[in-house]
Please model this.
Amino acid sequence: MPITQIAGEPCRNGDVMQRDAREEVVAMSGVVTRFGHHVVHDGIDLVVLRGEIMGLVGGSGSGKTTLLRHMIGLTVPTAGSIRLFGKPMHGMQGANLHQRFGVCFQGGALFSALTVAENIALPLRELRILDGALIQQLVAVKLAMAGLEAQDGLKLPAELSGGMIKRAALARALALDPELLFLDEPTAGLDPIAADHFVALLRSLHSQLELTVVMITHDLDTLVDICDRIAVLADKRLIALGTLDEVSAVSHPFIKSFFHGPRAERLLRARSLASS
Amino acid sequence: MNEPPARQEAASDPACWSATSQNPPALRLEQDGTVILSGPWTLLALGSRIKPLEQQARRLAARRPEGWDLRQLSALDTAGALLLWRIWGGQKPAQLACNPDTAAFLEHMAELGGSDRPPKARKGVLDQLAALGRATRRGAGTLLELLTLFGYIVIEMVGAIKNPLRMPFKEISANVHKAGTQALSITGLVGMLIGIVISYLSAEQLKIYGAQSAIILILSIGVTREMGPMLAAVLVAGRSGSAITAAIGGMRITGELDAMAVLGLSLWRRLVLPRVLSLMVVMPLLTLWTDALGLFGGMVPAKIELDIGYMQFILGIKEMMPVVNLTIGIVKSIVFGALIALVACHHGLQVKPNTESLGQQTTTSVVLAITLVLLCDAIFAIALRNVG
Model:
């Protein structure tokens, strides 16, 4: 899919990814967000390529979720353009794009009056092209893919644990076999074991379904484990974009405290020891 | 779990399996007897073609083709894979030509989606009988719970009277504003309209009997004793009752009720008591207001139809109507206010943490409140039939 009109190279710290012929799944250019006088984003350019896992980090209040909401079409930026699969997100064509990506909200946003299975079946039914039996089978597949038991499908969201809510939300996001997956804090609020499981699950889904993933996360482990590239939001801009090593080499107070704080240093040291 | 990628996209054109592809999913029977599938067999690409394609494939499958060739597929997703398994009747065809990635993906899908469907909760006759029993018990239970809630309120009230500082004045005042001040226009309007209606209808009848001046008595007693409290109660039940249930129920959904319990805040003192007290304050005031506008509304047709002057009407009320009617109306309205608030709070606390339950409890709350108000009114009417 040719997209040539993306202005400027989004990477501030040099060419990190080889700009090969891979499709640009998400392409944001010059995105500005203002709430009244409060400027949240001041010109953000970001490109996500097919098949990569992009981690979006930033301090609280740096506008990560707002940026994600722009990408999935819930809000419209004050200025700038967002293209998904080469098509403008905001406008007439945007509606057709919704079936090509899945979103996993932070709190799950499961429909509380429906069981987990019904939650997953809802987008499938809404297409009105599948019969009941095939929908049932698809629901079973999605449940299994998200690491849930068939029995869990009968439960209501209120009866689920935190980790199961995340899994159920993931299963629903995967319902239409999307090519692109947005995750908002997928491991927040999970204990380390559950978080590890979730990361492993994501990794296997990524390779199974050849997903492109954009995720907001605070969790260094997650970033280190599965993110191909990391985008760092601070000072209303994208201050760094690249692999972990490249991003952590950028000198900026936020990066210093995030990637070189005592916690991060401990983690990275442990990892380099383990790998050597 | 580490399965190889299942979407084999043509490298030259990654968009070829998007929903608006030039080469749609298709299948054809070759001369050598193999069925060749081509195009993207994904949920979105299949779209409305899914039914005709499946029928065509089943027809081909019934003719026992030599083999199946999946190598021309440009993409295959879970829906496509499950569809293929269904076309094949759940069994892998003997001759299947596809690359190993696709084969592994197909196997994986069959494993996940094959036998293990989420079981459906079955409902037998016994379950339905049990549901009936539960519903009956719930109905009886509601009354008992309302009584319990009333008991808690009395306890809280006694505590609040003993120690007035514990009285939640701020909440009461806020509720009086919401349930009272903001309801003035609607209760006034409805009261006036009803006054006009009663007045016009009675005027026609009274003219026949030549008992023109009786309209003053009919209106004054009818409005102050029955219509005023009744209308105010029905409107408040619909307006404030539903709001109370939804507000408390919403707190259940967001977990605020749990937070209050953990912080040691009494639900009854903080949520229920202020609402009950404020409606007990608001209802008589609203009733007086509705009475006044109802009578005002009745005065106009009396003047037009029966030629009874405004001054004559007002003085007539003072002379003819026993004050006890007004007292009964006010007392009733206080009871109605307490009833509405109790029912609304009770149903608010009954909300389960899902949106469906919130809507259901709000509906039940309003219906039950209005029903109880009417029931209560009937009891008053019978008990006080010789008064006034």
In short: The interface with chain B takes residues 1, 22-23, 50, 85-86, 96, 99-100, 111-113, 117, 127, 129-130, 133-134, 136-145, 150-151, 153-154, 156-158, 176-177, 200-201, 204, 207-210 of chain A (CB under 8 Å).
